[in-house]
Amino acid sequence: MINGCGLRGFTRPGIAKQAIDGGKVHCEGVRAKPGKEITVGLKISLRQGFDEKTVVVKALSEQRRGAPEAQLLYEETLESIEQRQQRLEQRKTLPRHLQTEGRPSKRDRRLIHQFKNSQLD
Fold it and tell me: Dihedral angle at the C-alpha atoms of 78, 82, 83, 89, nearest 10 degrees?
């Protein structure tokens, strides 16, 4: 079943189930369910934070194993690795957060409302 550990970032079955229930895991382009039976060669797409990974199942295990052993059972696609690297570079160029001077003053609020109202016209 797909409701297991081993995929990078899913250290516990509960976290994996939350990701599946949240719609962050797709099998062959279709949203996965916790009871989905997986087979060798199945393509799984999953989202973890900003990262989206696509992995292919290489082998199956009868017993639940630790993460290092489970990682040997799947392989991330080259396209997925390249896309993650590109997104990482794009995020690095963006500013981390915008610094503000706090709450807008009464004058600032009036200017903001004036600006918004002028955009609607």
Answer: 160
pTM for the whole thing?
Answer: 0.67
**Pick from 51, 45, 46, 47: which is nearest to 90 by CA?**
51
* CA dihedral of residues 106, 107, 111, 117 (deg, nearest 10): 40
Which residues does residue 74 pair with via DSSP β-bridges, in sequence order?
57
Q: Is 31 helix (H, G, I), strand (E, B) or coil?
A: strand
d(CA 74, CA 55) in angstroms, rounded, equals 6
H helices present in 1-121, as ranges: 13-21, 67-70, 78-93, 106-120
At 70 the pLDDT is: 84
CB 67 within 8 A of CB 9: no
Q: Residues in the chain with pLDDT < 50?
A: 4-6
The third-level CATH classification (topology) of the domain covering 1-85 is 3.10.290
Query: Could you give the 3-state DSSP secondary structure of residue 8?
Result: coil
Domain boundaries, the chain: 1-85
